[in-house]
Amino acid sequence: MQQWRYFPGFQLQPHSHTISSKRGNGNLFRAIKDQPGSITAISERIHHDRSAVKRDVDALARIGLVQIEVKVLPGHGRMKEVSATAECVLLQAEVA
Fold this sequence. Notes:
The protein is an alpha+beta fold. The chain has one domain (5-91): Winged helix-like DNA-binding domain superfamily/Winged helix DNA-binding domain (Arc Repressor Mutant, subunit A, Orthogonal Bundle), CATH 1.10.10. The chain has helices at residues 25-34, 39-46, 50-62, and strands at 5-7, 10-12, 18-21, 37-38, 66-73, 77-84, 90-91. The strands form 2 sheets. The chain has a 4-stranded mixed beta sheet with strand order 1-2-3-7, with no helix packed on it. Strands 4-6-5 form a 3-stranded antiparallel beta sheet.
């Protein structure tokens, strides 16, 4: 029997790209894949709180589904741009 690895809000089976989410992060991944951008822009597009999106993006980055690149904005500081690294994600729902 294979062990599952647990991440905040996610379950990822070892040696696979199968991920399940209890918070509906499939919409987040789809939004990032469809249009990469800043965490703020993504949170506005999916109508979620920026801090919640950042927390979920960090979890997706830890398991290798997205990458976060820090870009320097001339005269405006820095921006973290998020883009998908995986082509697709298989989401599984657990119905109790």
